[in-house]
Amino acid sequence: MGDHVKGTVTSLSSVFAPEDAQKASVRVQEAISERQKEVQQLQAFLNDNASLVNLVKKLPDQLHHDIMVPFGKAAFFPGRLIHTNEFMVLLGEGYYAERTSKQTVEILKRRGKDLDSQIETLNAVIKDLKFEASFFDETATEAAEGIVEIREEYDEEASNEDKATPAVMRKDSTHRLSRPPICDDDFAHILSRIDELEKEELEAEIAEEAEGKEEADISRLISSMAIEPEVSNSKLKESPDIPVSKDSPIKVPTPSGSNTNVRLVEHNKLKESLPCTPAPSNVVEVPTIASNSGNDSSRTGVSAPASKEVSNYGSGSSNDRSKAFTGSIVEHTHNNENNQKGQTPAPASRPVSRFKMQRK
Amino acid sequence: MASSSAASRDLQKELEAKANDLSKIQKDISKNHQVRKKYTIQLGENELVLKELDLLDDDANVYKLIGPVLVKQDMAEANANVRKRIEYISAELKRLDSTLRDLEEKQNSKKEAIFKVQQRIQSLQAGKDKA
């Protein structure tokens, strides 16, 4: 394993604590309700305006109206409205103008149009905020699930070296796993963790097979996968020999056992969903191509430029464990951006990293 | 060991001071936002008035509410007054913009500084853990 390449594995929950993400989501929700209140207020203005227009239209119909004139807060006295076609209209900023009924209605209609456009813009803002809120929720759940983020500098030379000196290679009936480049300590730790989990998963998977799947969660994950950016071909060409693994998403779940089932399902589903992504043509030397979906993951694995990725630990044969481990990266582009501007400022100085997951 | 814990305490203090500065700057920024909002609303209102004044006939009667009384005003005069007011508000908005930009720059540099301190604390703690 190349010592020259540095990479880090961070659990998502350490970067964005679930509580923080939740808090951010709550804050956005508050903003939304604030805007909605504003919209309601504007709507009320609009209604007032409409009824005023009606009144102003009606007043000149008669020469005079008998009315009750408010006197103080509680009293009224009978009076009579004359000059029913003369209005003193407040234009704003303390300016009044004398207008006829018709002219007044025109002014009021112009105001109504203004209110309409304001409501429209506010609605657009609310839409944006809602999108943001749904993203924060997503982040919160992902962090709570224990998804980890693997970051590694993309180094062309290094990857070339890698292919020159192929290291331990591993195959397995269904998945080939490569080690994510990470610090040795971390790596050993993770590896052992994965061993356990893999065993667990295998057991759980069997049990799971028959059971219904939790569609909601899955579709969420799948949709996030769909966001991964297209990889530029050039990049792929530069490192064409990087072997790829079949299941790109490697999820390293947190120890909480209760999650296991859900994760498993997601894992399976993800595999199914992968083949939909276009496969790059230039995948070379995949020692054991498990299935045609191998190509796809090469795409994600090699070049997804950084961010939160989903990782699934290989659920394959458990005896491969010690070596079988694929890290690959799935990018959530919008997530990343939003994160940085939205909440806990992600360390801006962190370099955009590239991954190439498969070194063997 | 003792020296490292002292160092980490210093760093903590530094971090706190910087965080305080940052929150002050953020307060200023939010104040700035509020003032700006007020002015923006006024600008909108004035522009509305100007539009309506332009639509009025030249011989229309225009009054200005001064305190409790309506004072009759010349159309031309009212027009000029509103224009002046708009100019003033625009200038004020521009000024607020520039101060806001200043504040944001300051905020960013403070954030960076805080981040650096945090990193140092982390590396210090990591070193301690290993030891």
From TrEMBL, chain A:
Q: So which domain of life are we looking at?
A: Eukaryota
Keywords, alphabetical = Nucleus
Output compositional bias ranges, type Polar residues: 289-301, 309-319
Q: State the Gene Ontology BP annotations.
A: negative regulation of transcription by RNA polymerase II; protein folding; response to cold
Is Transmembrane helix included in the keywords of this UniProt record?
no
Q: InterPro entries, alphabetically? A: Prefoldin, Prefoldin_subunit_alpha, RNA_pol_II_subunit5-mediator
**Stretches with biased composition (Basic and acidic residues):** 160-175
Q: What is its main location?
A: nucleus
Protein location: Nucleus
One example GO MF annotation: transcription corepressor activity
Q: Does the keyword Nucleus apply?
A: yes
Query: Where does the record place the region Disordered?
Result: 153-179, 231-261, 288-360
Q: Which Pfam families match?
A: Prefoldin
Q: Which cellular component terms (GO) are annotated to the entry?
A: nucleus
User: What NCBIfam families does this protein map onto?
Assistant: prefoldin subunit alpha
Q: Give the UniProt family note.
A: Belongs to the RNA polymerase II subunit 5-mediating protein family.
Query: How is this protein named in the record?
Result: Uncharacterized protein
Per the UniProt record, the source organism is Deinandra increscens subsp. villosa
From TrEMBL, chain B:
The record's comment on protein family reads:
Belongs to the prefoldin subunit beta family.
Q: Spell out the protein name for this chain.
A: Prefoldin subunit 6
Answer yes or no on keyword Chaperone.
Answer: yes
Q: Which residues form a coiled coil?
A: 86-120
- Key word Metal-binding present in the record? no
Q: Name one GO biological process term.
A: protein folding
User: What InterPro entries does this protein map onto?
Assistant: PFD_beta-like (IPR002777), Prefoldin (IPR009053)
Q: Which UniProt keywords apply?
A: Chaperone, Coiled coil
Q: Name one GO molecular function term.
A: unfolded protein binding
One GO CC term, this protein: cytoplasm
